Structures are given as C-alpha cells and as structure tokens.
## 1
Amino acid sequence: MNHVAALLVELGLLFLVLSLLGLLARRLGLSPIPFVLVAALAVGEGGIIPLDTAEPFLTASAEIGLVLLLLTLGLEFSAEELFGSFRRHAPSGVVDLVLNAPPGFAAGLLLGLPWEGALALAGITWISSSGIVARLLGDLGRLANRETPAVLSVLVLEDLAMALFLPLLVVALAGDGPLDAVAAVALAVGAVLLVLLAARRHGHRLGRLLTHDDDEQVLLRLVGLTLLVAGLAQSLGASAAVGAFLVGLALPPSFAARARALLGPLRDLFAATFFVAFGLATAPAEIVPVLPAAVLLAGVTIATKLATGWYAARREGVGVPGRLRAGTVLVARGEFSIVIAGLAVAGGIPEVGPVATAYVLVLAVSGPVLTRYVEPLSAPFLARAR
Amino acid sequence: MPGMDLEETLLPGVGVRYELKTRAGETLGIVVQREGGAEIAVYDRRDPDRARGVLRLTPEEADALAEVLGAPRLTQRFADLSREVPGLQSARFPVGPGSPFDGRTLGDTRARTLTGCSVVAIVRDADVVPSPTPGDRLQAGDVLVAIGSAAGLEQLDRRLSGQV
C-alpha cells in the first residue's frame, strides 16, 4: 500500500472504531472518553496495532482539536454567566481549588515527579469534566434540581480558572523561573478580564465581523481567527489553548449559539484525534506500575469532590440528598484533565501521561456510576432533609 | 403580574430555570434551554430539591406550548386594541442575524419617524421588554412587537430586514 492509501485506511478504521465505542459508551450511560483512551492505548506505541502512517497526522490534528475544545469551552459561557457565577459562588470555587488541587500536587511529589509535573497533576485532580457533568445532568433529569445551579457554577469557575492555570503551567514547564511565571499569570489575568469587559461592551462588533449568511464563510472566518490568535498566544509563550479560549469568551451570546452549532461536529472530530494522539503517546505497559497510585488518588479526590459539591449545594440551602447528588456528579474528570496532561507531556514530563490516563479512566467511569446510584442510596436521609 | 411567585435562576451553559409556586401550593420548575428546548418538572414532596417527573420538550414543542399558553392572550390584547382604533394593526418582526440593526438601538431604526409605527415591546428569548425606549439595544433573535397602519408596518418590515 502506498503512503496515502495507508493513511486513509488507518484513519477510516480509526474513526469507525471510535464510532462503535461511542455507541457502546452511550449504551452503558458512560462518557466515550475512557473508551477512546483505552482504544488509543491498544493501538500505537507498544500496543496491539500500530498506527504508523497516521501518527504524524494525528499529532498535528490533535493540536487543532485542543484549540477547538478550548474555543467551544469559551463559547459555552457568556460573560454574564461568568460574572454571575463569580459573584454568587466564588467561595465554592475557592473550596473546590483548596480541596482538589493539593491531593494531586502531593501525589505528584510522592511519585517522584518534578514540581512542574506535580503542578500538572494538581490541575488534573482539580478540574471536573464539564462535558461529562453537563451530559449527566441532562440524562438523569437533574437540570431543574435545586442543587444544579451550584454544580454548574463550580464548573464555570473551574473553566475560568483554567484560563489562568494553563499559562501558569506552560510557563512552569518551560522552566523560566518564578518571576516569569508571575508575569505570565498577571498577563493571563489581565487578558481574561480585558476580554470579558471588552466582550460586554464591544462583543457584538466582533460578532458582526464574523457573521455572514453563508455558513461556510462563518466557519472559515471563525476557525481562521481562532487559529491565528491561538498561534500568536503560543508564540508569545502562553498557550494556544488559552488564546482559543479567549476568542470563545469574546464572542457575543447572539453569535455564540450559531458558532456552537457550526463548530460542534468539527470539534468532535478533531477532539477525538486529540484523545487518540494522547493515548498513542502513552505505552500501556507504563500504566500498570502507576495504577495503584492512580486508584488511590482517585479515591481521595472522589472524597474531596464530594465535599466540594456538598459545600456548594449547602450554601444554596439544599438538603442532604441534593448535596450528595451535587458532590457525586462533580467526581467525573475527563477532557480537561487530559488537556493538562497533554501539555505536561509536551513540556517534557512524559511521566504525567500514564498517571493521568489511569486516573481519568477510573474517574470518567466511576463518577457517572457513583452519581447514578447515590439517589437510591441517599433515600434514608430524606426524612432528615431540610 | 402581582402576587405571583416566579423565581428565575441562571443555569450557566444550559439556560434559565424558572420556579413557579402555584396558588394551589405546587411548585413547577421550568428549564428553558439555550437551544430553545425546555424541561418542565414537578418537585419531589419528600426531597424538595429533586425534580421528579420531567417533561422534555424539543424547541418546536416548547414553541407550540408557548403558543398555546401565551400567544393568544398577547394577540387578544392587540386585537382588542385594533378593534378600538380602526385602521390600527399589530405585527411581530424578528431581528435576524443579518439585520442592519443587530447591535444598534431601537432609536436607530427611526421607526416612528419614517413609518409612523410604534414599537410597543421587544421580546427577547423568554423576556418581554414592554414600552421600550429609543436607547434600548437590539440583538439578533429579538422580536419587535409594533402597532401602526398596514402600510406603515409593511414599510417597517422592509426597513428592519435591511431592504431599505
């Protein structure tokens, strides 16, 4: 087979397998992310089937997948929702950080990672998967529940914090010293605030610049602008992901709806290649030795997320069963833990890859299962509720 | 609406939740999703934080329900108005994403000056801005409710869609 033929066949098979895995995941009521990770481990380096020809393509398109993931994350929330969540739920966001990041950091140091790697692991244990959680809330019919605004606000604050955490991590990984890290974070805070304020007043102008009757025009302009900003951010030593996130934030809500609809399928395709590329870079044999540590870390951070959700829901005056629902639904870690791990691996700490993979595998599966079965389990508390 | 207990909560990334305590003592939860779909729920008596019996509506179904419950009353009111003043009609004009007035103020449309029509309300998603002022900013997706003569309304329609 010549090169092009091999590339196309490999990619075709890959996407078909991903489709089957997605179906299986839906059937089981789980997120497809752990399935994709397992599949990617099974192929590639040290795996059953090599994906030699497609690998360079997958690595390149993984970068685009990362940019699109963060762009759609920025599009997900309007400035109004961010400010609203911050005003009302800032203490919950702080509790979330204080409870969930330190276990990751400590585990990183105990595993013998350099402090930059421990920092990455702190981010990995801190951030819940907004994709999995949002899906669960819809599937389980909890959108109208009274604890749900608190849960969603914790997710919003985490996602906003990512805009600050990612540049910090990137600078730390580059090893430029603490002064540069402080400067990078100050720059990131400034950029996020500036973009949010500008979006409030002038966002509609940007929206009008990108708007066109033709979907193709909108898609080309939006993707073009995003890649440009992401590239500039990367060259400035921030992260492409942060640049893309800021573009998403700056777009006005009126345009965001259309952008989400247009970008959705493209994002899904490229994000899939991102997860595959991440799995490819990790050899299955490296996972086994770190598995006990990852399971232990998962156990600890299930407890800390539970406490976070409990606290956030209690602030809203929600009873015990609702607090348990809020806590367990937040347990799932997923796409952004992998994003952080990807940055760490690319930044020269490949040891983060296997730990993060095992950790996400455990929690992307056990989180949804836990929150599904907490409802019948919390029945005894009903009498004491409120 | 006096005496009614309708509470609105923002659901980031999802939409808005409304909680309505009916006079009969029941609590109704309505989640209006960003994409236009809706969920209607009643709450568990034993666990008042938990939605039980959720009705899921697609955007079309939610629109149909809104039409059944809301629109006739609105139209009724304008029909009464039109009957009182012969020659007066009302119409609804959506502001499309390509409209020249997306992002500009109501005053910029110069509706009163150029067409003689009065914009009496702006309907934005689930909200209604009654008696809007010229300084109110329009966005794509808004629906303007205007009253005026048949010819004036036609003129206003062309102006809002950017044909004039």
## 2
Amino acid sequence: MRWLAFAILCAPATAAADHWAESLKGAATAEYEASYVHAYERPAMDEGEADGLGLAGLRARGQVGGDLVGYSIGVDLHAGATAPGGFAYDCAFYPMGLGVRFGKWSRFAVIGGVAAAGATGTIDDAVILPAEASLELALGSRLRVIARGRLGWVAGAPSRQDGSPTVAFADELDASFSIRLGSRKSDFGLAGRGYYLGVGYREAEGSRFVGAVIGHSIDFATR
Amino acid sequence: MRSLGILAAALATSCVIAPRKLRAPPNDQATVMLISGGLAHPMDEIARHPWFAVRRAGEQSFRFIEVGGGGGEDPFQNSPYVDPILHEVWRGAEAERAIECLEREAPPWLNALDYWPYPGPNSNTFGDVMLRRCDLHASLPATSIGKDYRGWFGAGVTSEGTGVQIETPLLGLKVGLQEGIEVHVIGLAFGVDFWPPAIILPLGPGRLGFADR
C-alpha cells in the first residue's frame, strides 16, 4: 500500500522528468582541420619567434538545451609544427558556454574554458583562458559559412602577454572564415557534411599572421 | 595557398588512382576478399567499416565475417555501408587457409568484444586483429578509425607484415616497407605511403594518390 501511495505521489514528477528529457534538443559539430598561418607583420627586433604555424587535428562542439538556446561545450585537439621547425600543439577544453540555434541548420555559440598551447623552441608553453565565438550559417542546402574567433588570456608565459596588436584587452587572437561545400540530409535528425576552405588569421606576440584553413566538417542536430 | 586549394579539390573528388575493380572472381576456387565501406551520411567521409567476404569453391554466395555479419551474392553490398573499396583478394589454397583461420579466430574475439566506437575496440580493430592473426598481408585504410587500437599501449608487427608499430590512444607510429610512415594522433592517421605512392589522410578513401595494392 505504501508503494502504491509512493507511486501515485511520484507519478507526476516522473512524467515531468520524462517530458523534460524528451523536450531536450541537441546539436554537435566535428571538424577535422589543417591550417597554416604565416607572419606578415612583425615587431622590430623580433628574433627567434615563429614565422609560421601549421596545425592539424580535431575540433568538436556540442550543445544541449531548448529549441532556441542551449548549453554549449567544446574540445580542440591540434598538433603540428612551426616554421622554423618545432613541434607545436594547441589543446583546449571549453566546459561552459551558451549557444543559439536559429533555423534548422544554423547556430551561434560563445564558449569559454582553458587551453594549453606552445611550440618547442619558438612559442613559449602557456596556459590560456580562451573565449570563442562561432557562427555556422547555412546558405541553402550545400553551402555553409563557418566563422570563428577566439580571444586568449595567457598565463605563465610573459612573452606572450599583450600580444594582440588589435585587441587591447586580450593577449592573443585567432580567427577563421571558411566556406563549406557539402550535402545535408534529414532522414534521422538533421545531418550535414562537407569539405571547407577558408582564411585563417592570428595575432600573437605582437605579430600578425594570415594563412589558409582546410577541413572536413560534419554536423548533427535533433529536429 | 594554391596547393591547399588543390588538396581540397582532390579530397572532395576522393582522388585515388587505379583502384581495384569491384568484381568478384569466379567460384572455381575459394575466395576471401577484404572490403571496406563508408558509414552512412554524414560520417561517410571520415569513417569506414571492414568485412571479409568469404566463399568456398563451388558456393554461390558470400558470407561476411565482420562485426555485425551478413552475406549475399554480391560481396560489395553490405547495407548501410556505402562506397565500397576492395583492398585485397586471396584465392585458392591461401583462401582456404584464411577461411579456416577466420572461422577459428573470429567467434571468440567477437564474443569477448567490449565495443567502443571510438577509439576502439570496434569493427576496424577486429579487421586488423584478424589480418595479423591469420597472417593475411593487407592493411585497412586510414579512415578505418580504430584499426590501430591496441588498448592503452601496444607494439608489434603491422598487419602487412613488413613493418612495426607502437600505439597508445593518443599517439602512435607505424613504419614499414609497404606501410610507409604513418603518424597516429588520437586515432587519426597521417603519413606517406612510398609504394604505391600516396599521402595518407584520415578522410575519404584514406589516401591521396595511387590505390593501395
């Protein structure tokens, strides 16, 4: 009898929890990316710094929440080399953020977290507190604009602080603008994929870099 | 910048020169074929699944030895996998020996499989393990994510038998005469194959250049 009373009391709460779980909407993106940026503007008396930075790896982003607004997270795992030669890495974890889905296929997110990045011999190893804003905008069924900007506040590497000539309140700036050409389907949820090509831009240690970005991206979302 | 554009165009058109024709040999001898297919959209360009299509002499249809399992008269039709690639064919006495070995080695491995799509063990780990256990000299493409999974740490001879590899889930290295040089970063393979010449990439058919033969 006690179990019956318990079940009757808990039934509305269980139903509400079920309804809440069913109403959750999600979206995720994974990008395999290779990029190279080369310095085109250097401060005077700047020796021993990297002229170029090439990275390859995986970028993953996820969002869960309502139809429009959701909680966003992300992970970056990139490794590569600098010119002159040195092993380079850039890994980040973004445990907090806010994303907005607009339309079925487009979204905007701002996320923040912690990163570790550096290169042997040319870029001092540092812990970075990054904040990233990203936009994925569907233009018809085949084209997708992928724009991304990341500001970084550097800890543990004085040489990398105040390194962005444009943004006075941050130490580093990374940005990219790419166009993806691909396909999308809505058989089971919403899913698309394609290769993208774009422009990469970086400001660090007083230098400005520009280069190219190439990658393959896939995206998923609930309806 | 221009070379990156060319690379993008080549990847987008899945540029592999001289791939094996998707044609099953006659059934006068036993046949084993190593085939892989891309996962369904949108994963088709980044992940593949392998199967051994086996047929004894005189039989009409193929049986698939894989994680999953099926079969049919057309060894290249294995739904839901798309864009099949034929990697290797064994015939005659070699195929008979391979079938016996696969039938002996596959069931216990599959029964003990604690499947993880990434980084493994998964269907590609199964394919690579069977190649090594049955001494079948071939390799899976770079997009067979999980083929190099060896647990937290592993080292040994490669599936093609002419090289060595050392692996962790984070980083790995494969070096060999036929294998070329492959660096594995979080399960993604990048490298150079010297013969047939190709750049190894974890996208599309897994290589840019001549097909692996």
## 3
Amino acid sequence: MFTTESGDEIFVVDGHVHLWDASPENTKNKYGEEFIKCFYDYHRLGPDEYVWPFEKYRKYSDEDFEKDIFQNGYVDLAIFNPQYLGDFYYHGFSNLDRADNFKKKHPDQVIANGFWDPRNEAKGLKLLEEDAAKYQLRGIKLYTAEWKGDSKGWKLTDPWSYKYLEKTQELGIKNIHVHKGPTIRPLNKDAFDVGDVDEVASLFPDLNFIVEHCGIPRLNDFCFIAAQEPNVYAGLAVVMALMCRRPAYFNEIISELLFWLGPDRIIFGSDYALWQPKWMIEQFMKLELPEDIAKETGQITPEAKRKILGENAARLYGIDIDERKKKLGLSTGSKQSESKRVTAVA
Amino acid sequence: MAAESKCDPTQMSLEDQMAAVWSALEAVTDPEIDEAVTSLGFVTAVNVVDGDKVAIEFRLPTYWCAPNFAFLMASDMRDGVSNLSWVRSVSVKLCDHFCANLINRGVEQRQDFRDAFPGETDGDLDALRRKFLGQAFQRRQEMLIRYLLRAGYDSDWIKDASVNDLMVAPLDEQGDRLRNLYLIMWRRIRRSSAVEHERAFTTENLEPLPPGQLNVYLRKISAARHNAEFNGVFCRSVLTMRKSRTL
C-alpha cells in the first residue's frame, strides 16, 4: 500500500515479478550464462544503490523477495510471470514450482501464472490442463522467443497456438501476458512484429492480452493495435526502468500510452529482480508531465496513477480491493470518493 | 584497369585512411533506430593493414540482438567501406553475439541472408529493409516539417513545395541539416535521385499529404520518431552497461 501525502491509500499490484534461478548449478550452457549477463546489464540501468552483486542476482532468496516487494516495495499483490527457458537452465529459469511454493506462504499476496508452448503440441495441451488444476491458474505468460531444440521461437498465429488459446479460454483462464524476444522465425522478418497479437486479440475477444514491455521495440505498432483492440493492455515492465536514467523519455512514452490506450489499460510491473518497485512507485507517484507533453496528450491524473498501479490489474484478475485490504488489516471504504476528491482538486 | 583508377595507398597517410573508413561507416545506420552505427557506439575497432586491407569489429547492445538487423548492418559496413577506391578487402566481425559465426561467415562470403541462415527464412531481407526505410523516412520528414512550421512556412507551402523549392529555401544550419537528412531518405525510398519538379513531401507510399491541417498527419507519423528515439535510448544505455561489465 502506498500512502500519498494527503493520506490517500493506493492498493498496489506488481504485474510482473520473478523468483529466478540462474545459479551456476542450474545453468546448462553458455546461452544461460549470456542470458543472465544480459539481464544484469538491464539491472544496472536502475539506481546504483539498488544494484546487487552479480552472484546474488543469479539466485536470490524468498526473504529478499519478501523484503523488496512486500516490506519496502509497497506491493499488496504480486503476479509471477514465469519464464521457463528449458534449453538454458536445468530446472527452468523462473519456474512454476518455486512461484507456487512461495504462493503457499503468501496466499493472499501472490498470483502465480503458468505458461504453455505450442511446440509441445498435444502433449502440452494435456499438461496445460494439469497445470491449470494443480496451480489454479488465472493467467498465462507466453514467451515467443523461447528456444526449443532447433526452433528459435514461435508465433501466436501458429496453428497449434490457436488450439492452446482455445484450451486456455475453455479452462476459464482469462489473462495472457505476451512477451516477444528477437529470435522468431522466419528470421528475415521483423522479429519483434506485434501483428500476431492483433490477430489473436480479435479472434479471442474474451481473453485479455497484456503485452509486456508495451511491445518494445515496436512501441508504435503496439499503440496502433492496442487502440483498435479493447482487450489489449500495456504491461509497463522494463518501460518503468527508464524513469531512472531517462525520465524525459519515460514521460513521452507514458503520455503516448495514455493517448492511445487511456488510463484503464496500462498495468504497472517492476520485473523484479531486474528492478525494485520501491523507487519506481515513489518516482511514479511524484510524476508530473511537462507542459509541452501535457499539452498534446493531457496530464497524468492521480486517478490514472491509482488505476495503473493497482486497479487495472485487480480488475483483470477479479480482485476485490476492499476485501483484500480487510484481509491485510487495512482501512477500507471511502477510497473511491477520496480519489475523486483528489482528482477534482488536481 | 580498375587497379589504375585506384589511388595509390602509399599516397594516403594511415590517419587519412582511418578517417575515410570512419566516415564511410558514418553513413551506415541501424535500421530501426535510424542512426549511424558509429554514433551509437557499435563499432569497437577499425584497422588498416598493409595499406589496403580494412578490418572492422562491432558489438551490439545484447548477445541476443535480432540477427537480421545485425546482418544488414554488417553487410552495409562491408559495402560502404569497399566503395573506398583504395580498399582491396574488408573484413567485418560481429563479436559476442549468439549468431556471430553465421553472420560473419555470410558477410565475408557475400551471401544473402537466406544462404547465411539456411532453412530459417522465407526470403531475403528486402521487405524488412523497406519497412524500416519507410519508418526512417517518416521520422526525418516529421522533424523537417515541424522545423519548417516553426520557421514560418505554412501547411499549403509544405504540401505543394517541389524538391527544388525545398532545396532553395533559405534555412539556417539546423534546418539545412534536417533537409539533407530528409533528402537522402527521399532518394533512398524512391531508389532514384531527387527530381527537382517532384513534390518534396509525400507519404511514405509517395502519395500527396492528406488535405487539411498537417497536425493530424504529423501526430500519426510521429510514432516512428518516438519509436526510433526510444529504441536508441535503450540501445545506448544497455550498450554502456555491457561495455562497462567485467564479467
């Protein structure tokens, strides 16, 4: 919970977190080694005082997570988005079991999503059913650049992908988090193309597609697609990190997103342990867009911040914020009217 | 004979040769950022050996950067430097990248992308290159039009101006730079020289600009600039971290 200077309490959902293991014991090959090193370069884009030693960054503890997310990070609910990377790490990089075990310790504060890979074909469909029951899945994370033997990636529009999307829908799982990386076949095409999101979002209007990192580096294509597809959302993981070293660019991006998607379809995510939510949320709450940007796309309101930091994700996952607050022993009730008052004053 | 038309390498100092190579590399851009590979800090080493052999090394912000873009940049560097009259051979080496071997071999053997990555493509890189040329065109056009509007040229002038009108317009240093950047791209998307009587400003599909105020059109094409700048910021930041890492 983040409390504003005026005493307004903001329920915070971190829409993108990990408990990963890239320890030397779990790392299969040089690709796993290079993957975590690349992640470490991104990590160092954040504030210096939050940079960890590389050894800790490879594998950190549940206690680190509890401290950085729940105690210091203002987060009331954290959503795990697994990244398996089975070709790089023996037991996966950010796997379901570790997240699930962690969830058992904090049942009201954690949502642990699953994943699927259409290249597992019929066998994987069955596994998805089992996972859905075993982990009570409410969301799925897809990483289309995952290596698998000779294959260096897949598309949401691959024939087996449709079957998985149908199965996902049938199982009552509503939220699909999509992340693209740069190795999708065919290699001669734009590897970051988000056109396949457009197609599946139209075909599966009852599913929500949260495009992680706002489709970076195809932010412009993403915005055009999201403007047309009401079930496409912007996940702010990675984009938030720009606030540290390039705040002016962060301002431009958040104003673009507000212009194209509006405040109801943008979702905060720290991408922990890449970065920590504490400084991001503190800086975001202070954010005021400069006049020249605000003139074109409007100022970011306290109400928009409240939505982005928690209400939007809560809505997608059917979380009753008042009820959650009660469980956490926090005050409830007049928050809506308070937020309206703050907005009106602003 | 070709050899006779070449400058005698002994006539050029090593310093001049190095400067000529760097200058040729300045014309090579990262297609999605529309900035020179040199100003982005990608080129890590340039050497001239035996008076006429050039060796270039470059590194991208991550081990995982898209191989198609890496291939385009590496071949553009090879071609740009090969065009220098005194250069007999060019080697371009991409370092620390998951596809470094395939890309370096393909560029050395002047393969097209299909042959360098057999079975992993369904064509060459032409369509990709065209797409990103279109984006670079929009980016440069938006910057120039916004500059012209600030300098007092109105929407009607901009919509009707010929290439000649644009070329003779008295602009200050900044305006002149934006105009040059734009006209280079104007030629590249048409694959021809600028013809003086042709319209200076068209859409990327070479159609006249939409009627009415330019603001709506500019707002639309500004997405290309936002995207390129955003990627530029990210690439630079990550590359800085990668270079400073000692692991």
## 4
Amino acid sequence: MTDEQLTAEIREANLTYLMLAQSLIRKDKAEALFRLGISEESADLIAALSPVQISKIASGNMLLCRFRMDDDVVWNLLTNHTTRKVDNDATTKLHASILMAGRFAESI
Amino acid sequence: MATAKSVLNESREIERAVALIQLGARLQVLESETNLSYERLLRLYKEVAGRSPSKGQLPFSTDWFLTWQPNIHSSLFLNIYEHLTKVSALEDIDAIMKAYKLYSEQITACAMEPILSLTRAWRLVKFIDNNMLGMTRCSKCGGHFVTEPYENSRHFECGLCSPPARAGKSTAAGGILLH
C-alpha cells in the first residue's frame, strides 16, 4: 500500500467514524456516550460539526478514533487467547462486555 | 404531583408508561414511576399489551441477584446503568430503560436469553440505592459485580473468573455455558 493509499484509507475511516458518531449522538445522546465511550463534551463537539468541518477534520494522517480497551484482561477475553476455566465464546464475550461497560466509571 | 394538571406532563408520562409496558414492566413499576392513576394505568396496560397485567407481589428478595447466572446478567445491566448515569444526567427511570435496552441488545449479541426482566432490573437499582446490595470489584479480572453490600473486596472473585462447581451445566436454551 502506498502512502497516498494509506492517507486515503485513514480519511475514509475517519469520515465513517465521525458520521456514525454524529448520527448516534443525534439519535440518543446518553446511549451514544455508552456506545462510543466518549465524554459528553466531545459528544457535543462532534454533534455540532458541519459536513464541511467533518471532511476537513477527517483528512489528515492520523486516525481519530482510538482503541477502547487498553488492558490485557479484556483483550484476552475478546480474543480468547488464554485458556481459562471458561472457554465458551459467548460467555467470554459477555465477561468482556461487563468489564468494558464498567471501564468508564473508573476513568472519570 | 400536587401541582396543577399539565396536559404536556401527562402526555409525557403516558409515553413513558407505554415504553415501560412494551419493555415488559409490571404494573407496580408503572405506579411508582408515573403519576397516572391506577385505573388509567390498567386501561393503558390492556391497550398496549393486549392482556391484563400479572397479579401478585413483586419478587422482593435480594437472593435472586446473587445466584450465579442471574448475577452475571444483573452485573452487566448494572454496569451499563452506572455508565449511563455517570456520563449523562438522566432521570433514574429513563436510565433504567436505556440501560435495559442496551443490556438486552448485548445479551442477544452473545446468543443468550435476557433472563433479567425490566421489573427485576428496576428492583435491582432500588436495592442498590438502599444499600441492600452493592458492587464489588473482582480481584482477578477487575470487573464490578453485584454482591452483598459488605463483601470483602480483597478476596472477592466473580462468578466468571471462579465459576462455582455446578455452574454452566444448564441445558436450557440461552443459558450461560462454560464450555
């Protein structure tokens, strides 16, 4: 992949993310905050963006959305890498969602 | 509400009641969360649900939330609920409804049956508010789980990190399986 292609793909991902985020926030803000895992301030900012602003922000060489979980526990649960007492896919996924839903409460 | 009757407020309450009925709330929940009269709620219930509401008392014990499978479901719901109430200023009942919706969505995505009903979820929030149940951090995975209010957090391990011996053997469809 050439550098131009990379930038184009990043732009595309950014655009999709921002547009999705915007429609989620406009539909139901509280729910969107949970789904996106962002603060209310950022949500207000994103919701207020005009299409022109979105396309401006989206073009650049940096991705705007970033990884939600930065710890091994959740990551291992999601990928099911480590063998544990529980090795049912649905159950580990459920475990991971409990951990992820509780994450924000700590970081605030 | 002792203040003058407001048509606007009333319509909002009816809307909320309808949403609650659609989520499967029992009549007691509606009575406690809206200011509509019992007769009107009853009529509304029949109209929306197409049947008479279930009779009898609500389940009043905290034990159900502490048994293995219900505990995991309740913990997921409560984590979502706390998340919602922390990040945005919602009225309690709205937060419960939204959290319940997100909970059912997540459970369905895991190909399971949501065994926590809206009435139970509402009950759970009341129990937590009144300190009859609490949340404790699992010492292994760091997740927060519904427990007795004074669980020893140093040694607490959640039902998913250390499932009890007979857990996950249920053959009922939509249950939590270990293997």
